[in-house]
Write a structure and sequence with these properties.
The protein is mainly alpha-helical and about 220 residues long. The chain is about 45% helix and about 5% strand. The protein has a two-stranded parallel ribbon with strand order 1-2. The longest helix is centred in the C-terminal third of the chain and has 26 residues.
């Protein structure tokens, strides 16, 4: 069985996306041209996200609809608040399956299970890690003022402090996002469209990780 291309919308991924999309009923009077299928349009959006191609250059022969059709559908779904929901669903699945090691440096720390006492909830991390580029007392003061411990490497510290292994989790996340060429350079004029692309990329990464954990298990 051939491995699907990264921009293809396989059945498992579409099963997550489709229920979250708003349903648009076709008008009975003056229906106009039939609406292009959502799945093909979403695949066109992923094609642009992966390849960095301009909307107007999206090949018609692929069957995804025109670039303008895909852009309008992306804007429509973005204004409907669609894109945060698939990401949340996939993250919830990943947490239940323990397929990812979530860093405690997240913006919102979920309750810690398995310990006695009241579940721990904090809106800020315990610590913020930084490399030698952030070795300045003003940054340490700013972080401490927020009630967070700064763990920043000193410039004269030898390599091998161990912090790189923890920072690598964040660097790996950026590397995964750079799989989507459209995110390497911001081409979008509208902030919400750029954020939609970013959220779709995160959702696809989570889905791939979840799918890989199920396959290996």
């Amino acid at each position: 069985m051939a491995r699907p291309k990264p921009r293809e919308v396989v059945d498992d991924l579409w099963a997550v996306i489709e229920p979250l999309l708003p349903k648009v009923e076709r008008r009975t009077r003056h229906p106009g041209r039939r609406r292009h299928p959502d799945r093909l349009v979403f695949q066109g959006i992923l094609f642009v996200l992966h390849t960095k191609i301009a909307w107007e250059h999206l090949p018609q022969k692929l069957g995804f609809g025109s670039g303008m059709t895909c852009w309008r559908r992306l804007a429509e779904w973005t204004e409907a608040g669609v894109w945060s929901r698939p990401h949340e669903v996939l993250l919830a699945e990943l947490r239940r399956g323990n397929a990812l090691d979530f860093s405690r440096a997240a913006v919102a720390v979920p309750p810690e299970r398995g310990k006695r006492g009241r579940p721990r909830r904090r809106r800020r991390p315990d610590a913020v890690l930084g490399d030698r580029g952030y070795d300045h007392d003003k940054y340490r003061r700013l972080v401490r003022d927020l009630g967070v411990k700064p763990v920043i490497v000193r410039r004269d510290t030898e390599h091998g402090s161990g912090l790189g292994a923890q920072r690598w989790v964040v660097e790996r996340a950026f590397a995964h996002l750079h799989w989507f060429r459209r995110l390497r350079i911001r081409w979008e004029i509208r902030d919400d469209i750029h954020e939609a692309f970013l959220t779709i990329g995160c959702a696809v990464i989570c889905w791939r990780r979840l799918n890989a954990s199920r396959t290996s298990g």
